[in-house]
Amino acid sequence: MEQQSKAFSFSSYQVEESVGYLLSRTKTMLSKAVDDSLVDLGITHAQASVIMMLAIGRCSTAAELARDLFIDAGAMKRMLDRLVVKGFLARTPDVTDKRLFKLILTEQGRTLAESLPPIYHRNLDIAFTGFSPEEIGFLRSLLKKLLANRSLFEQTASPE
Asked: CA of 41: how far to CAs of 69, 90, 105, 108, 144, in Å?
C-alpha cells in the first residue's frame, strides 16, 4: 500500500488529531492512573512493569527488560538497583555466562507480582468504560499490528 506524502504545514497541523499524540497521551494517562494506584505499595508503574515481566517469565536479564520495555540500559540499572534495595528482586550470576546476571523475584517480589494484575485490570476497566468487547478486541489487534512494525524501524534506522 503506497501512501501519499503531503506537504507539512504548521498552520494546518492539529496535534489533537495526531495518532502519535493520541497514543502518547493514552499511555501517559494509563501510566499515571497505575502510578496513583501503586502509591501504597511503594513502587511506580515502571517498576511494576519490570516485576510483571519477571513474574511471567518474559524477561530474565536487565538487557532483555531494557529492550522489551524501551528503557535505556542506564535507567534500567538504576531501577533494578532500587528494586533490589526494596527487597523485590535479586541478581544471581548466570551459570552459563559469568558476565551476565539473571534477575529473580524474591518471595516479597512474587507476592507483589500477584497483587498487580487486579490493579491493572481495575484501571483498564475504568479507562475502557463505554467500549464494547469488540471495540477492545479491534484496538488490541491494531496495537499488535503496530508493534509488529518494530522490525521495520530497526531495518530503516540510519547509522549514527
From this structure: 21, 18, 16, 12, 30
